[in-house]
Amino acid sequence: MGKETPMADELEKGPWPSFIKEIKRAAEKHPSANDLLKVVERSYKDKVTHWKHGGIVGVTGYGGGVIGRYSDVPEEFPSVAAFHTFRVNHPSGWFYTTKKLRQICDVWEKYGSGLTNFHGSTGDIILLGSPTENLQPCFDALSGIGFDLGGSGSVLRTPTGCVGPARCEWSCIDTLNVIYDLTMEFQDELHRPRWPYKFKIKASGCPNDCVAAIARADFTIIGTWRDSLRIDQDAVREYAEGGLNVEKLVVGKCPTGALEWDEKARELKLKPQDCVRCMHCINKMPKAVRPGLDHGATILIGGKAPILKGANLSWVLIPFIKLEPPYTEIKDLLLKIWDWWDEHGRTRERVAELIQRLGLKTFLRAVGIKPVPQMVNQPRANPYVFF
Amino acid sequence: MAKTDIGPPDFREMLPEVIKKNYGKWKYHEIVKPGVLKHVSETGDVLYTVRAGSPRLVSVDFIRDICDIADKYCDGHLRFTSRYNIEFMTPDKNKVEPLIEEVGKLGLPVGGTGKCITNVVHTQGWIHCHSAATDASAVVKAIMDELYDHFTSMKLPAQLRISLACCINMCGAVHCSDLAVVGVHTKPPKVDHEHLHALCEIPTTIASCPTGAIRRHSDKEIKSVKVREDLCMYCGNCFTVCPAMPLADPEGDGVAIYAGGKVSNARKPPMFSRLIVPYLPNNPPRWPEVVSTLKKIIGVYAEHAQEDERMGEWIQRVGWETFFRLTDIPFTEQHIDDFTHAVETYRTTTQFRW
């Protein structure tokens, strides 16, 4: 094997853990993993991919969740002639018991290549490479151990959220629960494509946004608070005595000048009305500064990567909303957004692109939300106003 | 028949006892050392986390290996971070060092916390994707072999998030990363006139082009399309809707580098990554041009940025002209935007540096 794949073998060297070693481990038991190694070597030589476009495959009752993949050189690499992928919906916050993980391993050992991504960039568990005839039995086995498929195509993609209150003191919302709840509520939207294009929901517990919700989600939920930061002055002094330059590195970096360091009293003073909840002082002094207690979320709309009309960061839609189960307001809002987008959107038009085409004003009217200054960086400068 | 629409397992069944008990009650945390977090609860309970890097593309035996560790030290629980790091959690301080040792035995680095380069978020590349303009896993492996010490230490001015997308669809938050590596095509699609009519809807194909470069073929006998090459910017959207328009090309395909993006709201608002190097060749298996360019940018950033300044914050402060001068990267016409949001990027002040 070694002699056949010199370039892939090169990638076994070096300190960072090697994916080639992992392919070889799977190749000991699975001919398809062995062929995958050779396909990759071939791509390193040819400098192009050897996977063909699409192909519609799936399992009964689902319109997505399985990505069809065929080799463009099947005669050379017959074990990966068909090498389809499952997206498997992860548990909120990517927490697992080893029992559940071992069950997935056993299923995938039996029906697939033995190769996985933990996780894919969608957040799903990716089971990489199964022949067409194994798809249905593999799905049946996954369902049997309590797992279900994630989203692919023009559906609600697998919602994801940060670690949240499970292990983070900054989380202002229960990201794990809201993500689980929305995922369960919208199983039909997740599994059966009917929309113009994909729709993503992500939730981060605080404005540090560890799941990149503002950049990657059409519907962005970010935890925040309405009252004042909580400051423990004794703990601030401890940081100062421990060598932290509070004046320069905390006060000096506050984007709105809301903080002041009283050197004499050794006290950190806050003008709460000037704080924009950026998280910097909290990040610098987690023991001394904490978010306020009047928790909720900011809802933003339209984050996406460049395809097709350019990348967007999500835009503020609701500056503050309380986020409590059963999340009725959020669900109603989502249904209104989907209705409007489904009605007016063109093929492969994300909701942000539709908003750009028809105007934020039109969108706000459609979903019944009144304009507020928090929605814009600044009002328009031009005089071309509709009345 | 198997049950459908059961959804994922309930996360509550996946949580360790100490987390169930302290859910929503965490008070503060500290980074004990690179790769080790200590969370303290209002209840007085303490939780240690050991964070390890992962190649992300892993065999089921790899998963079983980490399960063995979690069974031995973490009561059978583990988690993954949003950047694919593996996290082992225990309330017992005495288990931290043995955990680190076991993780090391698997060949996994412990780190990825604080002012470091944590796991690189990336896509499938030539392992599995039909539209990939470059590989993903190999480029990331080559990069992290060279930047390994930045994973296991915390010596940078701030966090530095690297992401890689193997084409400009940019799966993953590549467009808002401190450093982004993006696979790019630089040749227009080659239309397969023989098969196009059987594989594709012609109106959909024409409508898919954001610059209007695709037209009906001028010969009515040929049921196909033509591409106005001067209007094509190789986005590949037509290929996504029409397999008869492949644009992969061994010589034309390569890698672009973007810099200065972030998603956190800390200090400055979230920002996009901006084009730094329009094209570097695909040079498997180790992409030396890409690796050396990233190393150079990181070196200049580490030398010049202030404490807590992310890549994009530093560049905003010193100006892009300073960035290009310090990194010695040529500024070309490709750097000037001519797409949908272009004019927002043109400078409208006489304030700049020489």
Characteristics of this structure?
A: 387 residues, five-stranded mixed sheet, four-stranded antiparallel sheet, 14 helices, globular, B: 354 residues, 13 strands
What's a concise summary of this model?
Chain A has 387 residues and is of the alpha+beta class.
What does this structure look like?
The complex is a heterodimer of chains A (387) and B (354). By secondary structure, chain A is an alpha+beta fold. Helices cover 33% and strands 16% of the residues of chain A. Chain A has helices at 6-10, 19-27, 31-46, 98-111, 135-144, 175-185, 187-191, 213-216, 233-241, 246-251, 280-284, 328-344, 351-358, 360-367, and strands at residues 51-52, 66-67, 70-71, 84-88, 95-97, 115-117, 125-130, 160-161, 201-204, 219-225, 230-231, 259-262, 267-270, 289-290, 295-301, 315-321. In chain A, the strands form 5 sheets. In chain A, strands 8-9-10-15-16 form a 5-stranded mixed β-sheet. Chain A has a 4-stranded antiparallel β-sheet with strand order 2-4-7-6. A two-stranded antiparallel sheet of chain A has the order 1-3. In chain A, helix 8 links the parallel strand 9 (201-204) and strand 10. The radius of gyration of chain A is 25 Å and the shape is globular. Chain A starts with 5 loop residues before the first helix and ends in a 20-residue tail after the last helix. The mean pLDDT of chain A is 96. By secondary structure, chain B is of the alpha+beta class. Chain B contains 10 helices and 13 strands. Chain B has helices at residues 17-22, 60-73, 96-105, 137-152, 193-199, 202-207, 237-241, 288-304, 311-318, 320-327, and strands at 26-33, 36-41, 46-52, 57-59, 77-80, 86-90, 121-122, 162-165, 179-184, 214-216, 225-227, 254-259, 274-281. A 5-stranded antiparallel β-sheet of chain B has the order 1-2-3-6-5. A 5-stranded mixed β-sheet of chain B has the order 7-8-9-12-13, covered by helices on one side. In chain B, strands 10-11 form a two-stranded antiparallel ribbon. In chain B, a hairpin with a 2-residue loop joins strand 1 and strand 2 (36-41). In chain B, helix 4 (137-152) packs parallel to helix 8 (288-304). The mean pLDDT of chain B is 96. Strand 5 (95-97) of chain A pairs antiparallel with strand 5 (77-80) of chain B.
